[in-house]
Design brief:
Layout lengths: L1 H16 L3 H20 L17 H31 L3 H12 L5 H33 L4 H30 L3 H45 L2 H14 L18
Helix pairs in contact: 1-2, 1-4, 3-4, 3-6, 3-7, 4-6, 5-6, 5-7, 5-8, 6-7
């Protein structure tokens, strides 16, 4: 899927960018899009799903943190190559290879997240969101060299793609029988926030360089965990028996003395 497209497309785009940025733009995304559209015309028309319809009310609560997290992730993707070029004077061709190598880290995400998806998807989203925020700060501020920065980027890719799997699982769990509507909300969210992440990242980069860019994107990752933390706290309060408190005094049996 998408990770393999990164692995194959980024090195090729980087090599073509060495000739001219127009060659990179037309040679990879446009050509791949035309090939994809041509392939879709040969697919059989699927039957209309009966589960389509208005998204359930629980989906907006899921979509808000996804907006923050996807915006942060898209900002990392947009500006990672520029950071490598401007920080280490790496050629566009080599940057394409480095980005493609980092994208390989996305492949284990599905397997790593699977054991936790059924009962702990929300907790996993919090943990991975905070980890992505920390790694993004390291990537933008601590820049010891091209190879270590690529390794940090690979960790961000692993964490962010694992988080995407957990987010999709939570959306499906929240949707019930409206799974098609849930995936529609997910697709719309993902496409919209690419623009948001690029805009926020560009403004931060212009105002304070890569350091402010990293802090801004990390803040978006962290904001994406707040609604989940609130939901976890609310669920914990509902599960606690009425009148119980962690500060309740211990009862002492006088006959036990």
């Amino acid at each position: 899927g998408q990770p393999m497209a990164w692995v194959a497309g980024m090195p090729l785009g980087g090599l073509l960018a060495g000739l001219d940025w127009r060659c990179s733009l037309l040679g990879v995304p446009l050509a791949a899009s035309l090939a994809g559209m041509a392939a879709l015309t040969h697919l059989p028309r699927s039957a209309r799903s009966t589960s389509a319809g208005r998204p359930p009310r629980s989906l907006p609560a899921w979509a808000v943190p996804e907006l923050f997290s996807y915006a942060a992730w898209s900002g990392v993707l947009v500006f990672a190559g520029a950071l490598l070029v401007e920080s280490y004077s790496v050629s566009p061709g080599l940057v394409g290879v480095l980005l493609g190598a980092a994208a390989l880290a996305a492949l284990p995400g599905n397997m790593l997240a699977r054991p936790w998806l059924a009962g702990h998807a929300r907790e996993l989203l919090v943990l991975l969101g905070l980890a992505a925020a920390l790694l993004t700060v390291l990537f933008g501020i601590v820049r010891p060299g091209a190879a270590p920065s690529t390794a940090i980027l690979a960790l961000i890719v692993l964490v962010a793609c694992t988080r995407t799997v957990a987010g999709s699982a939570l959306a499906l769990q929240s949707a019930g029988d409206r799974r098609l509507a849930a995936m529609g909300v997910r697709a719309a969210t993902g496409q919209f926030v690419y623009l948001v992440g690029a805009a926020v990242g560009g403004a931060a980069l212009a105002a304070g360089g890569y350091e402010l860019l990293a802090v801004s994107l990390a803040a978006l990752f962290a904001l994406g965990t707040v609604p989940h933390l609130t939901a976890i706290a609310s669920q914990t309060r509902r599960r606690r028996p009425k009148g119980s408190s962690v500060f309740a005094p211990l009862s002492i049996d006088p006959d036990a003395a």
